[in-house]
Amino acid sequence: MNIFADPQIWASTLSMAVPLALPAIGGTFSERTGVVNIAMEGIMLMGAFFGVAFAYWTGSAWIGLLMALIIGGLTSAAFAWGAIRVSADQVVLGMAINIFAGGITAFLLDTVFGFSGTPVTTPKLPNVSIPGIDQIPYIGQIFTNQSILVYVMIAIVILSHWFLFHTRLGLRMRSVGENPLAADTVGINVWRLRYSGVIIGGLLSALGGAYLSIGVLNSFSVNMTNGRGYIALAAMIFGKWTPFGSFGAALLFGFSTALGITLQGHGVSSNLLQMIPYALTIVALTGLVGRSIPPAADGLPYDPKR
Amino acid sequence: MKALRSTILGPVVATLLAIIIGGILVSAMGYNPFVVYGSLVSGAFGNAASLGNTITASIPLILCGLGIAIAFQSGLFNIGADGQYWVSASASVWVGYHFTGLPGWLHIIFCLVVGMLVGAIWGGIIPGLTRAYVGSSEVITTMMLSYIGILLARYLIEGGPMQQKGFNPESPEIAQNTQLPYFNQTLMQSQLSLVAVAITILAAVAAWFLLYKTTTGYQLRAVGFNQRAARYAGMRVTLFTIIALCLSGLFAGLAGAVQMLGVDHRLLDGFSSNYGYTAIVVSLLARNNPFGVLLAGLFFGALTTGGQNMQIVSNVPAALTDVLQGLIIFFVACERIVPQIIQWYRRRRSTRSSVAAS
């Protein structure tokens, strides 16, 4: 199996993990505060489209990235409003966001950029190599010439773990997802923390989407995320609603995708390999390999007046 | 009567709001919204063929929607109808081209039954058992199985055992005598089949009868309404959870089988149909009422066919219909805000009048 000895497969595993890990960690924030976030797929699409659109209009991929975050944040704010303020069914609302985002991005791509799609001259985010690391023989090849968002992702994984499990605000956020009534009783603003959880989730999802459109490529195509938001949801569950777990699952799922691409020439069906993330998630949920238990108040709206 | 009016009002208002916002959106892009919507309506109902197209497009949506409505009424959310649809479609196509010795009517029934059974197993067993015994959310399990099902169907015709030798990724065609007959010559091009229409209407009646006229249906709804109370009343909640999800998959499976026998005749590489997701919208808009599903399904069938015509006539991308769908569900989901606004308004008025009185 010299495939595994090739650092290329690990480099592409890392690259494939980015658009899964970022939304998965975002989903962790959202669900830890008690809001089921199925809308990640749609928010990723919004981030991907508006990222590339603004990168083209302004000529700067960085402004594109910023706008992707802003639009993703606004979309998740609309989702949050419905889920928190109106106490609407979160799954239904998430589906609404996903269908809407799929439609509006396809519609705008067609009406604004026309048949040929986003221009090839659109700038993309830079790839970087860290000077010290790229000298190390094997590891260096994995980390050489990766998108800058790969490093951002690694920072986000560590920061969000620290934030969720080692700060007071993180503890409060988690308490809101476990027992909102108790949190409310000790004076924690349940709604505000839920809004911030969902919006952090939206920002990270949009970042994951932008990685697809201006990180690895510099173009957008209809339904570009191709279900990655749902795989991210699976990664989050598989990772037991923790940042490190989500990241690990995203790496595993990214690896199965990278392996699928590598083995395509070897007569192994990529369709079957692509099933792995979904099958693993079901296994994780059945409790055969350590149970995944969601936050107790996940998906339940909280009405402080009641 | 008042109850009926209030159940219809919400979805209608949501739809109107979505249409208005969609209109603003197309005007902003420089189109005339009246022309755009006009081409949508004429594309859906303009002549016999387009009406036939609308009905044909609505059939899988209605059948999937019925299943989702049953799950909803039992307090469960079947998000994986798409996968159930494709797995069943594969199974019924396999039966359709494999057993060629049977008489036509028997072969058709055989295909439909296999489709329904496979859908029921795919939708019910794993999600039902895990939900009932380890309490894992059926939203996630049905969604994961949906992706597995779509990938499985894709595998079958892309190098798998169902690929026709030496051809494009597609399965062999089902036997001639299993293909549902088309309505008549004029409606031939819309592929409208009277048999498919009859099956759909029968399915809606069956779903309604099951839910409202049988003990099982009553128990399903009771479990959906209040699980704890149902358990206290001695109902076997575990069993009904599994039954509800199986039934839900069964209807999605029927949708797959009917579509294969009536329209596609073989498994093709068109796995992004999203029938399962649109059907969620259908059943939400219908408030999970089987006859409402018929109407809502027709409405979305009209959106689909009308959207294609709209793209040809007025150059507005058909994706606009997805925008409308998303907005409709958003507003249906958020319609709980309406009584809150009324309450807030009343409260404000009463405080103002009390201030004025003092």
TrEMBL record, chain A:
Keywords: Cell membrane, Membrane, Transmembrane, Transmembrane helix. It comes from the Bacteria. It is found in: Cell membrane. The lineage of its organism: Bacteria, Bacillati, Bacillota, Bacilli, Bacillales. The chain crosses the membrane at residues 38-57, 63-84, 91-109, 148-165, 198-221, 241-263, 275-293. This is ABC transporter permease. It is a multi-pass membrane protein. InterPro entries: ABC_transp_permease. Signal peptide: none annotated. Pfam families: BPD_transp_2. It comes from Alicyclobacillus fastidiosus.
From TrEMBL, chain B:
It is found in: Cell membrane. It comes from the Bacteria. Its main location: membrane. Keywords: Cell membrane, Membrane, Transmembrane, Transmembrane helix. It is a multi-pass membrane protein. The chain crosses the membrane at residues 12-31, 51-71, 105-127, 139-157, 192-212, 233-255, 275-300. PANTHER family: ABC TRANSPORTER, PERMEASE PROTEIN, GUANOSINE ABC TRANSPORTER PERMEASE PROTEIN NUPP. This is ABC transporter permease.
